[in-house]
Amino acid sequence: MKNFKRMITMAIAIGMAACALFSGCGGGGNDPYADVDKSFLNGIDEPIASDDVQVKGFDVDITIDLIKMLGCKTVRFRLPFSLMSTPESVNEAKLEEVKSILGRIIAAGISPVGQYSIFPAYTSFRPDSYSSVPRPDDPAYVEWMEALSDMWEKAASLFPEITYWEMGNEFNSNTFFHPNGYQAVSGSLQEGTNGFKYEEQVVAVTDYMYYATQGMHRGNPNARSVMPGLSPLNNSFIAVENFIYDVYDRVKSGQAPCGSVKSTEPDDYFEVLCWHPYIDGTLDEGWLNAQNRIYQAAIDNGDEGKKVFFTEFGFSDDGIEDLEEAQIGYFERAYGYCKNDMPYVERLFAFRLYQCSYAATWGGSREDHYGYFTEPDGVHGFGPKQKALSLQRLYGGVGDLYKYYNV
Question: Which of 145, 273, 303, 343 is the most exposed place for a label (fewest CB within 10 A)?
Fold first, then answer.
């Protein structure tokens, strides 16, 4: 019955783009999307406060200046893993550094969305990698989730200037969220072996979101939790659609979260939906329909009007100019859909600011060519690719994007 319900939503979702044209769509003459602020649509993603800067010649002030000149109104701000190891053990030097960077971003008129992947390593669960999580049947599972909540409380209290927090990254993939014993694929982001079973992943991610959200609300009552951006595994938007439906099913079951307190209220787990709508090949109306089918999960569960962030979206041009030119058109089309036909999308983060040759060592050769600017090569500094010039026009930015090319 559940699968049948999901099938019939396809026809409903196709009509959502047309629905956006009418202010009364959504019921009762009231606009359910009134809280979605499209002035923040123009976004960018680039690790700015990373522990391990991988871009050649990286400079914080140059980066912020380029982001501003592009016309970006929001940035995905990834917090470094080394910031704290426990709520009582904060790296004060790193905190000062991150605070300084964050202050410069805000002073430039750019709104940060914090992204933090927190994995406590001080409970009776002993992780064998940074991203290890106890399985739901592990005796230390609830203890670990409670520790997670304490760490999120601390993070939110340290950064009151961040009001949106993305709780991790692509946690529907074992690559970024896995149990002990997981075997990754070297030099690739593909799924490895010995990871969570799908049902375990739904349970663990749902619990993670609950404990993270409750913690951040204790640390900053004004903070809002953002679902960890979900990945279209194997280039399948159905994977995202099913995962979100199954998270809602888990929430509504009355069995979540783990521990003694239960909640069937989705806002107790996530207040903003988030996924990464990457696509290989041509982007057309089928892409729009796929995103609407995903959002239908929110509508079906009484969450119409809940805003959506696309915290990563872009294309790898593989260093091929003709392919880059085609992808410029695809991005412009997706941007138009987000602006005009997807009333639920508030922020779209272009991935990523810079090309990064080092990224090929952990993500494969394609990972090097998502960037909008080339890396310094010893002769020239950061140089805009054609898609950077296009993005600036699309975003309404101003300024010379070649400013740092001949320095």
Answer: 303
